[in-house]
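S.,

Sequence below, as promised.
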Amino acid sequence: MANLKSTILETPAALGYAMPAEWERHEATWLGWPHNESDWPDKLDTIRWVYGEMVRKLSAGERVRILVRSRAEAKLAGSYLKRANCDLKQVEFVVHPTNRGWTRDSGPIFVRKSLKSKAQSPKSETAIVHFHFNAWAKYQNWQLDTRVPETAAKLLKRRLFNAQVNGKNFVIEGGGIEVNGRGTLLTTEECYQHPKIQVRNPGLTKAQYDEAFQAYLGVKNVLWLVAGPVGDDTHGHIDDICRFVNPKTLVLIKESNKRDVNYPPLTENWERIKHLRLEDGSKPEVVALPMPAPLYHGKWRLPASYANFYISNACVIVPTFNDPNDRIALGILGELFKDRPVVGIHAVDLVLGFGSLHCLTQQQPA
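The prediction came back faster than expected:
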């Protein structure tokens, strides 16, 4: 880990930056306009209407910055959003060619630090960490997506930190981490510690990951769960499994059907979480979120999960699947988020791309 230690004075944590929690105030949400047919075979037009619904909800409380490949694509996107009754004054198109639209993973990951101010209210500044997206160490076409943080830093005039460990680019995705904004980060062994499948950083130990998370995201405490649901293209992203809803409370997905293929790994997470502690040594409160009934595309099991919700300024948007458990999941989250409405967005078509609402969004803190 010599390289990280030798540049420790230049890391975000050393300079007082840390990643805020998702429920903290946003300046904007970033999205990537959908264009890759292989993500949603025969469904691309349907997905654009889902985006319209998302943008309509999000733009009620914050700016929405949408990555488009060209001005022509911005015009096309604008026509959909206008017909979906979105507030186009709140939408900004950013021209940057992309491979896919999964902005949670390839988009800018922001950190923030408070500045001493003579005024009563503290000021803060944000920066971006470049984590060098490589399409989940699975696909060959990622060279456009990995440059999104550079474009964002240039557009916003923000400092860009280059995440490296031992002289090599450090690769993680936004969907692979979850923070409470108080010093604790959640991730999974399946995603970042599997020895053979989708290895982002070959040879990197758990301790080295912990140190890199601490240096680049300003956390003190890293918690590792085991694995996620079958069908997840990312191989174990935490945002399909377990999420903070406030600094001390987590929701964790639970499969009640013992014959379901997801029962063993998800049950193992419940065993593991009993022994995990937050940054202050306390036990987190853990609330169970149900799983929808299995969804398939042909023979492929899709990673449908209510944990893939997104917390915006105006509301919490939650994927729904035409399932009896939709209502239960919305009710649980409605009880936990008292400060903003919880609304469902139909995601049966979205999850065909092996992700849903959280995977498509990336927050820019205020």
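The CA atoms of residues 40 and 353 lie 5 Å apart.

Coffee later?
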